């Protein structure tokens, strides 16, 4: 009888303890919400003057953020804070012909009176995909739109956006991205 009496009052207690234990959330490392990894900063650029046409203007200013490419611009002497507030010279095009905007940034001091290095930011889905340098320094850099016929001063025809450095001295330089790297070709300038 002692066992029956013991079972009579212990079974309800065991059941009660099981019910309480099953209603409490058990926190284990596998069920804790791990902090979400920070998403990479997005490239968000626009022309300061929306009507600026980089195929015609000597200098269009971009305002915004270059995402994860700030260090590439610092190498050129460009300040990310200035880019966010007042803007820096840049040329927007689709140099790799993937449908996403790409941006060419001439270095600090860009003008037609002196040569500066250039970094080109390739984007994909709003993020920096790659940063490349043009093979030589430039002065009067502009966007060169696709053209089925050769352009002025012997600049070749192209099926994609390219860059051109109109030379005031002896040469015009044409920069075309071939899907892997930039190719530069030299052509006689307007003075020859």
Number of helices: 3
Using DSSP, what is the number of strands? 11
Strand content: 25-35%
Mean pLDDT: 83
Low-confidence stretches: 9-16, 18-23
Coarse morphology: globular
Report Rg.
30 Å
- Order of strands in the sheet with the most strands? 4-5-6-7
Largest sheet, described in full? 4 strands, antiparallel
What is the H/E order?
HEEHHEEEEEEEEE
What quaternary form is this? single chain
Report the end-to-end length measured between terminal Cα atoms: 119 Å
The number of domains is: 1
Keywords:
alpha+beta; 4-stranded antiparallel beta sheet; globular; single chain; 3 helices; 30% strand; 192 residues
Set down the secondary structure blueprint.
Elements: H1 2-23, E1 43-47, E2 61-66, H2 70-75, H3 80-85, E3 88-89, E4 91-93, E5 102-106, E6 118-124, E7 127-133, E8 141-144, E9 162-165, E10 171-177, E11 182-188
Antiparallel strand pairs: 1-2, 2-3, 4-5, 5-6, 6-7, 8-9, 9-10, 10-11
Written description of the protein model:
The protein is of the alpha+beta class. The longest helix has 22 residues, at 2-23. The chain has helices spanning 2-23, 70-75, 80-85, and strands at 43-47, 61-66, 88-89, 91-93, 102-106, 118-124, 127-133, 141-144, 162-165, 171-177, 182-188. The chain has a four-stranded antiparallel sheet, with no helix packed on it. Strands 8-9-10-11 form a four-stranded antiparallel sheet, with no helix packed on it. It is built from three helices and eleven strands. The chain has one domain (43-188). A hairpin with an 8-residue loop joins strand 4 (91-93) and strand 5 (102-106). The protein is globular.
